[in-house]
Here is the input.
Amino acid sequence: MSALLHSAIAIAHDLAESARPGGHWHGAIVGGTDDDPHVRIGDTGDDLYSGSAGIGLFLSCAARHDPTGRFANLAAEAITRSLTQAPDLVRQSRLGLYDGATGIALAALLAGRLLGDDGLVTEGEKLCLSITRTPCPSGGHDLISGTAGIIIGLTHAHRITGNPVLRDATLSLARDLKAASAPEPWGRSWPPHLTGLAHGASGPALALLETGDIEAATAAMRYERSWCSPFHGNWPDLRAQPPGYPAFWCHGAVGIGLSRLRAHELTRDTTALAEASLAIQAVRDLTIRAGTASREHQPVDLSLCHGLSGAAELLITAATVLKEDAHLRAARKIGTLMIEHRDRMGTWPCGLPHELHRGETPDLFLGTAGIGLTLLRLHDPRDAIPLSPVSWS
Here is the structure.
């Protein structure tokens, strides 16, 4: 067994041991204000980003390496728990891909296929149909909780189920998303006019690509291109002034690079390929800095959202889309660095502020479930569901 696979399975065992009755987990939750943040330990919830749906999705991928069936049973239990909570989210119009009902539905569909559980697939499809009958919350257009994420989730649900109602819903939502954009000197954007995958223009661009509106998607990418800094080789995080230039999944090079890889895959656009290459270089630079920090026993974030798991996912996706094994070799070097850093620190450093919480949390996007899924992908990219929406098809 490779070190990557061994570490991933060890994480799955730890999650199985820490599971609460009924298929849920306790983890670190950030509260307070920006000026006075604090962390408390509590129920991680049911969503894809940090809750039972996301953790269950990782366990469903790990299940093929568990002859006892424990991971499969716990994965089904966790996602079933999330499905029971989803109707309340729908009534509250909390429909988001990562923090709402759409993500739970997609997790049920994906895990149901992996586990051969027709019941999960059926319930996931029912939840998707319920989402199509519910008005989207006004004003939200991003990938995490808004229309862009709902479009992507329902698009992939349609590919799994073949249900034409889901396809019709995505096309209607895409028209609404396009109409909500605002003209810019270059391209178009959505309030609050950010760059990046989680909350910026890359999320809508990806959604519009998936529904076939290449012109509108190109306009969104053109807006982000206007912000790209040749000096930094990256895109700014416009939430702060002066802006930073992170290489994260949520903001900066990693997420934007993932969207550009999908754009190139669908359209063969060479400009998108050039921007993806820029993002890959930013990840290589990030990895060098992380290696130096690790050797000096400084904390290094290993999470998906804003850590090395996200960086590795960009390189795995690049290897798949561009059919370049060199990217996969580089990604596996990141995996080795992650394991070495865990050995140095005695824990898997997660995506919470180090000064607030130095322990692990089980979340998919901030914690060990996402790290484990990354390690499974690094062992074999075909071995697990990708962590980003770019390659779910």
Notes: DSSP finds 14 helices and four strands in the chain. The mean pLDDT is 94.
